[in-house]
């Protein structure tokens, strides 16, 4: 067997075995994902663990004194509050929030096309940070973690920004863009950190934390 093929085969087997281990560890737990993000839902499907999607409305406001990852940590924890009185002993609730931090301020989701254009214009030819926080809550345990990825854009033309806004409708994305979208493909020149974190979930940290909780 060719060395590269053999290597790929054993890597595949190792990944499958690791997933089976986590799935086995969590068989007596019930994971609740409180997120309507299709990207986060897809990540959990890829982890091959059973989960339920459960949503509750939350006013995503935070104290003005908070900065940087304090904001995303606070919002991830805030999203867990409506669930706390209904969690069962084997439940693991997962809530999360993503912000873009640029020029000493948080950039959330744009409310309209003008705001989306202004945000993307500010990210053009610059480096910003994408911060995702994840809160894990059980009746006995709460842990909040965050991950930071630095993303650099080339100089975006007005035409490129307008085309992206008109074709991809980035109004459900912090910082007005999805790195997996067209603008990420043609505009991102450098990433320092986890790509998946930019998409909305630091999967490596989620996997590690679920293993930790399962071992408690």
Automatic annotation (TrEMBL):
One Pfam family it belongs to: Maf
Cofactor list: a divalent metal cation
Top-level taxon of the source organism: Bacteria
Main location: cytoplasm
EC number: 3.6.1.9
Residues marked Important for substrate specificity (site): 39, 98, 180
One Gene Ontology MF term: dTTP diphosphatase activity
Keyword terms, alphabetized: Cytoplasm, Hydrolase, Nucleotide metabolism
CDD domains for this protein: Maf (cd00555)
Catalytic activity: dTTP + H2O = dTMP + diphosphate + H(+); UTP + H2O = UMP + diphosphate + H(+)
GO cellular component: cytoplasm
Gene3D superfamilies, per the entry: 3.90.950.10
Residues annotated as catalytic: 97
Cell compartment(s), UniProt: Cytoplasm
Cytoplasm keyword on record: yes
NCBIfam families attached to this UniProt entry: maf
Similarity-based family: Belongs to the Maf family. YhdE subfamily.
HAMAP family: Maf
Function, in words: Nucleoside triphosphate pyrophosphatase that hydrolyzes dTTP and UTP. May have a dual role in cell division arrest and in preventing the incorporation of modified nucleotides into cellular nucleic acids.
The protein's name: dTTP/UTP pyrophosphatase
Organism: Hyunsoonleella jejuensis
């Amino acid at each position: 067997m060719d060395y590269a093929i053999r290597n790929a085969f054993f890597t595949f087997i190792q990944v499958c075995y690791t997933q089976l281990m986590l799935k086995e560890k969590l068989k007596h737990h019930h994971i609740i994902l409180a997120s309507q993000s299709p990207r986060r839902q897809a990540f959990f499907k890829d982890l091959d663990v059973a989960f339920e999607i459960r949503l509750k409305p939350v006013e995503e406001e935070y104290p003005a004194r908070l900065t940087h990852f304090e904001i995303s940590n606070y919002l991830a924890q805030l999203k867990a509050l409506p669930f706390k009185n209904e969690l069962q002993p084997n439940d693991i609730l997962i809530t999360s929030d993503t912000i873009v931090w640029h020029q000493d301020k948080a950039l959330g989701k744009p409310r309209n096309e003008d705001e989306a254009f202004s945000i993307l214009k500010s990210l053009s030819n610059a480096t910003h940070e994408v911060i995702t926080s994840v809160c894990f809550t059980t009746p006995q345990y709460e842990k909040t973690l965050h991950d930071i990825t630095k993303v650099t854009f080339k100089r975006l033309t007005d035409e490129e920004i307008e085309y992206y806004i008109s074709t991809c409708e980035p109004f459900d994305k912090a910082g007005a863009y999805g790195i997996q979208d067209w603008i990420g493909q043609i505009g991102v020149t450098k990433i320092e950190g986890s790509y998946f974190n930019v998409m909305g979930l630091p999967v490596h940290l989620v996997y590690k934390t679920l293993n930790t909780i399962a071992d408690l």
